[in-house]
Amino acid sequence: MPKEIKIDTDYITLGQFLKHAEVIQTGGMAKWFLGEHKVFINGEQDQRRGRKLRNGDKVSIPGFGEFFLSGS
Predict the structure, then answer these.
(1) How far is CA 3 from each of CA 6, 31, 57, rounded to the nearest angstrom?
(2) Domain residue limits, the chain
């Protein structure tokens, strides 16, 4: 079962998501992390740190887990 990540804005970026989901410790690690790991958003691979994630999106990171974004 995917871990639910609550957001209270229209969207967050993939870089912000990684920190919010506690996959990385600081926002500065996002570029490095995305260069080293595959990230799938709604089944499509995407490594763009600025990719906008919205309520209902599913994020899968092999070795780290699956996440589901939900509004507040």
Answers:
(1) 10, 23, 12
(2) 3-71
Residue with tokens 């690690």: 29
Measured between alpha carbons, how far is 29 from 25 in angstroms, rounded to an integer? 7
**Phi and psi at residue 29, to the nearest 5°:** -80, -10
What are the C-alpha distances in Å from 46 to residues 8, 11, 40, 66, 72? Answer: 23, 16, 6, 15, 25
User: The domain at 3-71 falls in which architecture?
Assistant: Roll (3.10)
Among positive and negative, which fits the CA dihedral 58, 61, 66, 69?
negative
What pTM, to 2 d.p., does this model score? 0.92
- pLDDT tens digit at each of 72 positions of the chain: 899 999 999 999 999 999 999 999 998 999 999 999 999 999 999 999 999 999 999 999 999 999 999 986
